[in-house]
Amino acid sequence: MSRTGGPEVMEYVDVEVGAPGPGEATVKHEAIGVNFIDVYFRTGLYPQPLPNGLGMEGAGTVEAVGEGVTHVQVGDRVAYAGRPNGAYAQVRNVPASLLVVLPTQIAFDTAAAMMLQGMTAQYLLHRTAHLKPGDTVLWHAAAGGVGLIACQWAKVMGVNLIGTVGSDEKAALAIEHGAAHVINYRRENFTEKVKELTGGEGVSVVYDSIGQDTFYGSLDCLAPLGLMVSFGNASGPVPAFAPSELQSRGSLFLTRPTMMHYTAKREDLEATARSLFGVVASGEVKIAINQRYHLPDAAQAHIDLESRNTTGSSILVPR
C-alpha cells in the first residue's frame, strides 16, 4: 500500500526479495494471519512509513539466514507475530528475533491463525491479570479470533468467562468454545446483564477490544478494585476521559497493553509461545479457522473483517 484508506488501497504486486540482512531470515510463507490490527495500519489509525506492506503474522519455512542468526536455520518450520508489517507476501525477510520454531504436531495454517491472537490471549489471561479459579471476567467479541481462544483457555483455568457477541450464531459458537454465559449486545444491555449474572457484584476483569462503543459500559461492569483491560479499538479509539471516572466507580485499574511489550525479551517470547503451543498440541484449545482467502483476495478479507461477518480466525493462503 502506498496510501492509507479503504481495502482498495492494497495492491497485489511483484517485489524483489533480496538476501536476508544481519539478524534476518528469509521465510517462505505457507499461511498468513489476518488480524484487526491490520485494518488499523491500513486506515492510518496506526501510522507507518509508506509505501509498505501489511500483516504481522505468518508461518512457513526458513529459506536463508543472515549474519548472526543462530536460533533458526535453513529448513526450520517457523512461525511469528510482530512488527515490522509485511506478512501479506509469499516470501519475506523477517527479523529472526520474532521467529519461533514450530512443533511438528502444529500445522502451518493453525500456526498462522493463532500466533498473534493466541499469544495475545496468553498474556492477557496469564500475565495482565492475576486470575484464579472461580474468578469471573467479561470478554467482548467472544466469537472473534482472540475471543474463541480465550473462551477455551479460561475454561481450562477454571475462570468463568462472560462473553458478548452480536448474533445468536456467534453466541452458540462462544458457548461451544467454553464461555460460561453469553450476552447478545444487540438485544440486551450488557452492563445490566453482567450485574444480573454476578448478583450485582460485577466482574473482576473486563477485556475490551471494541473501544469507543463499549468503554464506559465496560467500566460499569467492574467490581470495586477491578481491572479494565483495553486492548483494541474495533469501534474507534477510546475518547479522552478524567481519571476520576475510575475513582468514582470503585478505585478501578486501567491498562492498555500490547503483546510487543510482553514478548520484547526473547525468554518471554519463547515462554509465551511455548505456553500456547502446549494447550493447542494437547487439544485443550482448538484454533477455529473459519475464513480462508487467497493472498490476492486480501481486500475481501478486510471487508469481511470490518463488517463483523467473520468468526474465529482468518488466514491468507499464498498459493
From TrEMBL:
<dbReference type="InterPro" id="IPR047618">
    <property type="entry name" value="QOR-like"/>
</dbReference>
<dbReference type="GO" id="GO:0005829">
    <property type="term" value="C:cytosol"/>
</dbReference>
<keyword id="KW-0521">NADP</keyword>
<dbReference type="Pfam" id="PF08240">
    <property type="entry name" value="ADH_N"/>
</dbReference>
<dbReference type="InterPro" id="IPR013149">
    <property type="entry name" value="ADH-like_C"/>
</dbReference>
<dbReference type="GO" id="GO:0008270">
    <property type="term" value="F:zinc ion binding"/>
</dbReference>
<dbReference type="InterPro" id="IPR036291">
    <property type="entry name" value="NAD(P)-bd_dom_sf"/>
</dbReference>
<keyword id="KW-0560">Oxidoreductase</keyword>
<dbReference type="InterPro" id="IPR013154">
    <property type="entry name" value="ADH-like_N"/>
</dbReference>
<dbReference type="InterPro" id="IPR002364">
    <property type="entry name" value="Quin_OxRdtase/zeta-crystal_CS"/>
</dbReference>
<dbReference type="GO" id="GO:0035925">
    <property type="term" value="F:mRNA 3'-UTR AU-rich region binding"/>
</dbReference>
<dbReference type="Pfam" id="PF00107">
    <property type="entry name" value="ADH_zinc_N"/>
</dbReference>
<dbReference type="InterPro" id="IPR011032">
    <property type="entry name" value="GroES-like_sf"/>
</dbReference>
<dbReference type="InterPro" id="IPR020843">
    <property type="entry name" value="ER"/>
</dbReference>
<dbReference type="GO" id="GO:0070402">
    <property type="term" value="F:NADPH binding"/>
</dbReference>
<feature type="domain" description="Enoyl reductase (ER)">
    <location>
        <begin position="5"/>
        <end position="316"/>
    </location>
</feature>
<dbReference type="GO" id="GO:0003960">
    <property type="term" value="F:quinone reductase (NADPH) activity"/>
</dbReference>
<protein>
    <submittedName>
        <fullName>NADPH:quinone reductase</fullName>
        <ecNumber>1.6.5.5</ecNumber>
    </submittedName>
</protein>
